[in-house]
Write a structure and sequence with these properties.
With 84 residues, this protein is mainly alpha-helical. The protein is 63% helix and 0% strand.
């Protein structure tokens, strides 16, 4: 997602990432968007009030936040298996 944030607002892939679908929606709970999931992840690591696009433009800081979220998701023992 960080590389998409660097592309700018005029690119199609950026509009897909942050856009809202048009037309009638099906019954039930609205679908989650990538942006919604990103906002929830930022809340978990204590950066809830920040704009994720601005964070993603700072590659080093974004990489640190992604690693922090991944450490919340993947147990430490499993992380050792994945990096070996």
């Amino acid at each position: 997602m960080g590389n998409v944030a660097h592309t700018g607002e005029r690119r199609g892939v950026y509009r897909v990432l942050v856009g809202k679908p048009e037309g009638k929606r099906p019954l039930g709970r609205p679908r989650s968007r990538w942006e919604d999931n990103t906002q929830m992840d930022l809340l978990e690591v204590g950066c809830g009030g920040m704009d994720w696009i601005d964070l993603a433009r700072d590659r080093d800081r974004w990489r640190g936040l992604v690693n922090e979220v991944m450490n919340l998701r993947v147990p430490y023992s499993m992380g050792d298996v994945l990096t070996s």
